[in-house]
Amino acid sequence: MHRQTKELLIKRAFLAAAITSLAVLALIMVFLFMEGLPTFTFVSAKGFLFGLDWYPTDEARPDYGILPLITASAAVTALSSLLAIPLGVMSAVYLAEIASPRVRALAKPIIEMLASLPSVVIGFFGMVVMAPFLQELLDIPIGLNLFNASLMLAFMSVPTIASVSEDAIYAVPRELKEASLALGATHLETLLRVTLPAALSGIGTAVILGMSRAIGETMVVLMVAGGAAVLPDSLFGPVRPMPASIAAEMAEAPFRSHHYHSLFAIAMVLFLVTLFFNVLADYISHKHRQTGSASL
Amino acid sequence: MSQPAASALSAPSPGSVSLNVSKGRDIRRKGTQWLVFLLLRAAILIVAAALVIIVGFLVKNGISAISWDFLTEVPRNNMTEGGVWPCIVGTLLLALGAMAVALPLGVSSAIYLHEYARPGTMMRIIRLGVNNLAGVPSVVFGLFGLGLFVTVMKLGVSLAAGWLTLGALCLPVVIGTAEEALRSVPNTYREASLALGGTKWQTIWRVVLPSALPGILTGSILGVGRAAGETAAIMFTAAVFYTPKMPDSIFSDVMALPYHIYVLATAGTEIEKTRPIQYGTALVLIGLVLGMNLAAIMVRAWLQKRHAR
Fold it and tell me: Exposed e or buried b for every residue in B68-102, given b needs 16+ CB within 10 A?
């Protein structure tokens, strides 16, 4: 075979492999919509998204309103972000700017190991250790609740937020910091007024990715959130976020029943929300990319 | 790298600048810095403490359940006794099979993205696709696997369906680490090969890939760990509560450690009675996953040392 033809064919083959990711993403969308859209033949889009009752297995009058599930997802994500964002960003700043190389070499694997803990293990810990502990400590009726789930989720998104932010802080050009220090600013002042503003878009990306991870995380909310499909009325009430509903009910839903389709429709909502977050993260990191010291 | 230089520069220089900076203000600035740095240190300590507490509790409660029999026997008596051997086998089969799917595709994608593609719309779209795939919730992967592999391709709840689902889930991880490995190969290597008359493909196959191989290996160890701990993606596609037979073909359903923990901890009437088994299973799982991660971290540290020389 001619040498150039061979080279071209090889290039095409690699391109084909690279497109697999796109194809998988497209297939995921196709299947979610194919199985999810029939939901809107028996419930209106408005009734589905804003309905207050989720009783898909009721024989006489099933209800397919997922507002309690959406609210629960939003609540656990918001609350866990409240804990995870400061912890993650502060850890990143410490690792990138303050820690000595020896501490860094020790701390980075710790964050990576936290990231690698299987979600089912964190869920299990939340169930058997944290829930009784919270129950005792705060004198509340159930330990499996919104707060506990948020706490566990926070520890799952901290590694994402920390490692992406750390990269962003690292990428800030050294000249910027040196200029600030040369003008007499302290290390902290340089950090707050120069380094962090320059790394802000990267940190923003990190935060969005962390939140996106928290929204989609399944096992933790399935095991720890309590499972009641009601609007959350207190920090310590049981809730049922979207992924928990899908995972808990899919096994029992008869194939291509209304219940089955409505679970795919929930997955559709979940997919679109995380897609939005990821596209937003991508947009921010491209739009406000720090290119050299001149663009600040 | 800039760290030592930066802190050296930030050292106080009393007297050298005789502007109207009062001594009190200087002390206050230093004090604030000290306090904030203390807070930052506290943050990393909390994160480390979380890991230690979680792993510590599991080890403390699980270690008594671990024995040779626990690791090598099958569950008995409605899963209230016996061991987790089928779950270990299932998890390893699932994780290794998933990597067999994801590795060739992921490394090829990374080669395209890093060696062939020029910055432009095509590359931007593929990258956006990879990033978004990385963000898809695992339960959505589970439903996708159920819809495509289990139902349409008629694989049923099986190892094969689990491999394809987990393979898709691991793809972005593999692409990311493989790209990083390719990035670490110095451009001078490529230039030397091309200057000697090697084609692009010869350069990649004989020069770039061998240098990137250890990095790719690290990434695939991490991928196996990730796949081994995954639950939501396999609960509709590959894993079952209980099966009396060991997997004998790619169409067999399997038991898996993560799903075993979930089922024992949430379903059934003997939740309290099987607590030791739950702790033991969790300990086996994190032993497996953290062990792989430690291995990857060590390979990487060794690599960095070798590169630094």
Answer: eebeeebbeeebeebbbbbbbbbbbbbbebbbebb
